[in-house]
Specification:
The protein is an all-beta fold. The protein has no helices and 20 strands.
Length: 191
C-alpha cells in the first residue's frame, strides 16, 4: 500500500494509552487538528512513528517509539501561516523538506526541542516569526540528520558523523516579524 497511516487524526480528539504496532507506513498522522495524545507507543512501523501537518497543533505527551524506520516526528514540508508549537523533547522533529514560516505564521520551539535537517533543507522565516526559547540546560537545537549525539541514532543507520554543510540554513527575511532566539544551537548547517 501507499501512504496510509495506521491512525489518522483529523479532530480535536483525546487519545490515551494507544499502542500501534507493525504499521505498514506511518503509525499516527495528525491532519489539521489539535488532538491531545498521551501515552502513545509506536513500534515497528515502516516509516516514521508520527507525522504532522504544519496546520496541526497536537499536544503530545509520554511518547514511546522503537524499531520504526526512523525514531522522529516527521513534519510536513510547506508554509506555516498559523501558530505551531513544537514541544516534544524525547524525539527529534524531522522536516520532510523545506519549511517556511509565512505571513501570520509563528513557529514556537520549546526548550530541549531538536530539529534534524537533511541535505539542502532550509527553515525560512518570510513574513512570520520564529521563537526558539531554549535555556542553558535545555537549548533548542537545529542540526544534521546525521547528528546522533542528540537523541541518538534516529535513522537506525549506525553511529553517523555529521559534517559542515549537512543542511542549508535558517533564513530570516527582512519582512519577518520580531523573533526570540534564546539558547539556540545551530549545528552542521550552511550548505
Amino acid at each position: 500500500g501507499g501512504f496510509e497511516p495506521a491512525v489518522q487524526v483529523v479532530s480535536s480528539a483525546q487519545l490515551s494509552q494507544i499502542a500501534v504496532r507493525n504499521a505498514n507506513q506511518i503509525g499516527v498522522a495528525v491532519y489539521a487538528a489539535a488532538p491531545t495524545i498521551d501515552q502513545l507507543q509506536v513500534e515497528g512501523s515502516g516509516s516514521y512513528p508520527i507525522y504532522m501537518e504544519l496546520d496541526s497543533d497536537p499536544v503530545l505527551t509520554n511518547l514511546t517509539t522503537s524499531r520504526n524506520l526512523a525514531e522522529a516526528i516527521q513534519l510536513q514540508s510547506t508554509t506555516l501561516s498559523d501558530v505551531l508549537r513544537l514541544s516534544v523533547t524525547n524525539l527529534p522533529y524531522a522536516p520532510a523538506g523545506d519549511i517556511t514560516v509565512g505571513n501570520g505564521g509563528t513557529l514556537e520551539l520549546d526548550p530541549g526541542v531538536v530539529l534534524k535537517m537533511t541535505n539542502g533543507q532550509r527553515l525560512s522565516v518570510d513574513g512570520g516569526t520564529l521563537n526558539a526559547k531554549g535555556t542553558s540546560s535545555q537549548p533548542v537545537a537545529i542540526t544534521s540528520r546525521n547528528d546522533d549525539s542528540l537523541l541518538g541514532d534516529t535513522y537506525h543507520d549506525g553511529w553517523t558523523t555529521p559534517g559542515r554543510g549537512d543542511w542549508r540554513n535558517v533564513w530570516l527575511s527582512k519582512t519577518s516579524g520580531s523573533h526570540t532566539l534564546d539558547h539556540l544551537h545551530l549545528r552542521y548547517g550552511g550548505n
